[in-house]
Design goal:
The complex is a heterodimer of chains A (512) and B (205). Chain A is of the alpha+beta class and 512 residues long. Chain A is built from twelve helices and 21 strands. The chains are: A alpha+beta (512), B alpha+beta (205).
Chain lengths: 512, 205
């Protein structure tokens, strides 16, 4: 076959420019491209003893998962980070750029070459034990909780007495999961009422059920989610723990296919210094949207809830997070400044209840008094939503259990004075009272169901035994008889509601 | 401990099997019944050689392709165990098939996840290639004469890695087994399994 070499040379000549281009572009290798990405973005969880179901700590383990990694990075399932890319700069952003994501599919296409092992970076070491050093106090769940092999995720609260005999400032909290494979995220609360102990005692199993963040009774003091490294509070801020408080830890458990037990611990780092500045949270709408009148028809694909809150005092915000239940989809907050300019604070088009990230702004943002915060939350109650806990979908209203919904976007805010902080808390209470007035005038049975018998100063379970009776004192203020309350007419109405048992019993609206 | 086991299949794969690629469901797999592989039981790491696809009078054989570390597959463990218990009573033989694992790891996995079958070690992916399985978890139903009657997901609970429905709406494997046992055609012989991937070598060029 003498013509073959000739043909081959011809083919080579024709292919020469392509070959040249390929030679210029270094192929994607594990050692130079993949390892730096995986070691710094995945291996903190994907290592032995951590929550990641398999380790991604060397060439062999990553190569074996190359196709899966390419797939889950492409659809942004991993690394878990739900803020839309490129909208707001966050200091704890763990998402990958488009270019970084493309490296995984390029590497797969190239046949997952290792490259020069000498160029592989060293896997960052994570020391065993407490990352922030030995805590001043370790609070451990009194009993182990059994997580079944399968079924829905479990949200369980555990009461741990702290036995503090004086008011105490906290600079950092570190969580130690008993079984890291099943613990997804944690929220911390303080209870000074003894209510948590009661609820714990009533429930025969360790801890007590419920998904709601506070029920208004407990004071929220932050949380932890998978993949977050524990750090001291920024800017010299401190949490306040009143003496005699019980710690209430809400744990989100995810069954893994076999029964296991968890007995987690919380390490507290105390501080002799009080907080450097007054600080709190600004939740919009307040109290998890309790007075928002959330009522989602069965099957509705995109149910939208909106809320706007104008902040009454200057403050500086440093982080934002969103909370809803299984149906939550879009969670967005923007700020409109007094000069009319606007910016995003949070934009998540595919929010996921499983991950409760706290998004820390790259640089703290100053919000002058008069800045309006606009919140949009959407819910997918269709049968096509794989997260929908009910099949077929049912009507969903506001409530604390997993099959209810709620919704709030919460800012962490620093104030110059205590008065500014208190004025902001008061504005949030007024906001809640206004929402209650609106819902009662609209005739919302669901909101009325929550506030029955505790609406106004004189309301002692009789004045508002039905919705009509509850509306009567409000409509009596409608002097112009337009069936609405103007801002002037609202002044006495708000005063009436702020005196009522409902608002009074809500407890702290922000931090002490 | 990384226990190295010096057990290899006595019969290596026939050359045609490597050439065959993914078989269409229903296609007969000639000589598959002769494939001999090491297998372990939940209680003992000691491996014995078995011929999982040999005709022993079973009405059908189900192979569950698994990896010990795939969270999607592990989440299915209780359902797999229920299927095995229910259908073994009805004359179906079931195996777990593990491609990339040691005997010790498979024994531990069977025990930890309460999987009531033998774990077949398939380091050369012979059974995966015979059946066309590419994912874990993936289930294959084979007739006694080694025709692939069904290949795919156990049910539609898993949407993608990290997204799982509270309840499945279609239990494909159970529906397929019911059809096979009733002597009826399988309604959907091939479905897409969701989970982790078997590390199959790239096809020869």
């Amino acid at each position: 076959m003498p013509y073959r070499p000739v043909l081959r040379s011809l083919a080579l000549l024709l292919l020469w420019p392509a070959a040249l281009a390929a030679a210029e572009k270094r192929p994607v290798t594990f050692s130079e491209d993949i390892a730096p990405l995986v070691f710094s973005n995945c291996a903190a969880c994907h290592r032995p003893g951590q929550i990641g179901p398999f380790a991604l700590t060397d060439y062999e383990s990553v190569k074996r998962r190359a196709k899966l990694i390419a797939e889950v990075t492409e659809d942004r399932t991993m690394p878990p980070w739900h803020a839309d890319p490129g909208v707001v700069a966050y200091s704890n952003d763990r998402s990958l750029t488009k270019e970084q994501i493309a490296l995984f599919s390029d590497w797969l296409a190239a046949g997952t070459p290792e490259g020069d092992p000498a160029k592989t970076p060293v896997l960052p070491e994570i020391k065993d034990g407490w990352q922030m050093g030995p805590p001043d106090q370790i609070a451990t769940m009194p009993e182990a909780f059994t997580v079944p092999a399968e079924g829905r995720d479990i949200y369980r609260k555990f009461t741990i007495p702290l036995n503090l005999d004086k008011d105490t400032w906290v600079k950092g909290i570190e969580f130690h999961p008993g079984d890291p494979r099943v613990v997804h995220h944690i929220l911390y609360y303080l209870d000074t009422t003894g209510k948590a102990r009661e609820m714990d005692a009533k429930d025969p199993k360790p801890g007590f059920g419920g998904m709601s963040q506070s029920n208004g009774e407990f004071r929220y003091i932050g949380g932890w989610d998978v993949g977050t490294q524990p750090v001291e509070l920024p800017y010299g801020l401190r949490w306040f723990i009143p003496k005699g408080s019980d710690l209430v830890v809400q744990v989100h458990y995810h069954p893994i296919g076999k029964e296991t037990t968890d007995q987690s611990s919380v390490g507290f780092h105390y501080s002799d210094e009080p907080t450097a500045k007054p600080w709190s949270i600004i939740p919009v709408p307040p109290h998890f949207g309790m007075m928002q009148g959330i009522d989602i028809p069965a099957g509705e694909k995109e149910h939208i809830e909106k809320a706007s809150f104008t902040i009454p005092e200057d403050c500086t915000i440093f982080s934002v997070n969103a909370h809803a239940h299984y149906l939550g989809k879009r969670m967005e907050m923007s700020a409109t400044f007094p000069d009319g300019s606007t910016r995003w604070l949070l934009k998540t088009s595919n929010w996921d209840f499983k991950w409760q990230e706290d998004y820390a702004f790259k640089d703290p943002i100053k919000l002058p008094a008069g800045t309006r915060l606009d919140v949009l939350m959407s819910y997918d109650n269709s049968a096509e939503n794989p997260a929908n806990p009910t099949k077929p979908p049912k009507r969903v209203i506001w409530g604390p259990s997993t099959t209810d919904e709620m919704g709030v976007i919460t800012l962490s805010a620093i104030f110059e004075t205590k008065e500014q902080k208190e004025a902001t808390h008061q504005a949030l209470r007024v906001y809640l009272a206004n929402q209650m007035i609106d819902r009662l005038l609209e005739g919302s049975e669901t909101v009325f169901g929550q506030v029955r018998g505790q609406i106004g100063a004189a309301d002692q379970n009789k004045a508002s035994k039905n919705l009509e009776a509850a509306r009567a004192p409000l409509l009596a203020l409608d002097f112009d008889k337009d069936s609405k309350l103007s801002s002037a007419e609202r002044i006495p109405a708000i005063a009436y509601i702020l005196q009522g048992a409902f608002i009074k019993n809500l407890g702290a609206i922000g931090f002490d | 401990m990384n226990e190295s086991i010096a057990i290899f299949p006595l019969l290596t794969l026939f050359w045609w099997a490597t050439q065959a690629g993914a078989l269409a469901a229903g296609e007969a797999v000639a000589n598959a019944t002769l494939t001999r592989l090491a297998a372990v039981q939940p209680a003992e790491a000691h491996a014995t050689m078995i011929t999982p696809l040999a005709d022993r009078g079973q009405k059908a054989t189900v192979l569950f392709f698994l990896t010990t570390e795939c969270s999607v597959g592990n989440g299915y463990a209780p359902e797999i165990a229920r299927i095995v218990q229910e259908y073994q009573k009805r004359g179906v033989t079931c195996y777990g098939v593990y491609a990339h694992e040691t005997a010790a790891a498979v024994t531990r996995h069977l025990k930890d996840y309460a999987l009531p079958f033998s774990g077949v070690l398939d380091p050369k992916l012979q059974l995966a290639r015979l059946t066309g399985a590419t994912v874990t978890p993936e289930a294959c139903i084979l007739s006694p004469d080694s025709r692939v009657l069904y290949r795919g997901r156990i049910d539609d609970r898993a949407v993608k890695p990290g997204t799982v429905r509270a309840e499945p709406s279609v239990r494909d494997l159970r529906l397929s087994l019911d059809a096979v046992l009733a002597g009826k055609p399988v309604p959907q012989p091939v479905t897409r399994a969701i989970g982790c991937y078997l590390d199959l070598p790239a096809p020869e060029k």
